Amino acid sequence: DSGVTQTPKHLITATGQRVTLRCSPRSGDLSVYWYQQSLDQGLQFLIQYYNGEERAKGNILERFSAQQFPDLHSELNLSSLELGDSALYFCASSVPRDGLRDTQYFGPGTRLTVL
Amino acid sequence: AQTVTQSQPEMSVQEAETVTLSCTYDTSESDYYLFWYKQPPSRQMILVIRQEAYKQQNATENRFSVNFQKAAKSFSLKISDSQLGDAAMYFCAYRPNFGNEKLTFGTGTRLTIIP
User: Fold this and answer.
1) How far, in Å, CA of B82 to CA of B80, rounded?
2) Which residues of B22-57 are buried (b: 16+ CB within 10 A; e: fewer)?
3) What phi, psi does A43 have (nearest 5°)?
4) pLDDT value of position A40
5) Residue A100 scores a pLDDT above 60
6) How far is it, in rounded angstroms, from Cα B70 to Cα B30?
7) Of A46, A85, B57, B69, which shows the fewest CB atoms inside 10 Å?
8) Would the CB atoms of A108 and B44 count as touching at under 8 Å?
């Protein structure tokens, strides 16, 4: 158990819909990263938040957005869903409050299926 | 841009034997981290081992060790005394020490353990 939690584990929805994926980082970690794992694109970085602020952006579509709340949990919002958005979405966390850089530890992922 | 290449899509090894998974990367940075993550059928991403580029000594974690060749930009993973529970996808990942902290992943190697 990495200490990173993600909900829900599975999500099945229809094209055009909107969903929210939730992540709670390890206790004390300030950074949250979102990754997408799909068969054709592999593991791709989407976005990073650090202590509530957006730190870096990757290959994140405009239909996707994220935020990190004061309690450091994060949400990834996916809207106007398309079939190609079906994937496993991972959250990872790192950087404890003492400022030391650390390894990214991954949550169990949310499997999104768009029908 | 940094790239990570895993040229072995699939590998197999007899139980109790040793296997080496290959990884090469391309970067212009001199200070970075390299990781191996394991993804079993549960799809959880589990950290196996990490290596700081400034350390010449190869990292070791129990039955797992790496051969880090900085000049050759090579980072292979050796698994000794292979066990059935080692069966998984193995991903090599790179992260610079400065700037964007995202992980760049290779395409993975599927390891099968033969009883």
Assistant:
1) 5
2) bbbbebeeeebbbbbbbbeeeebbebbbbbebeeee
3) -90, 115
4) 79
5) no
6) 9
7) B57
8) yes
- Which pLDDT band holds residue B97 (cuts at 50, 70, 90)? confident
Phi-psi label, residue A71: left if phi above 0, alpha if psi -120 to 50, beta otherwise: alpha
Average pLDDT over residues B92-113: 92
Predicted confidence at residue B14, as pLDDT, reads: 97
What residues of chain B, 64 to 103, have a C-beta less than 8 Å from chain A? 91, 95, 97, 100-103
Distances from the Cα of B88 to the Cα of A5, A14, B38, B42, B110, angstroms: 22, 31, 6, 9, 6
Which single residue is written with the structure tokens 């390299």? B34
- Interface-testing mutation among B45, B50, B89, with chain A (most A C-beta atoms within 10 A): B45
Residues of A in contact with B107 (CB under 8 A): 42
Of the pLDDT bands very low, low, confident and very high (cuts 50, 70, 90), residue A90 is very high
pLDDT of residue B2: 84
Q: How far apart are CA A48 and CA B115, in angstroms?
A: 41
- Residue whose C-alpha is closest to residue A81's, from A11, A32, A25: A11
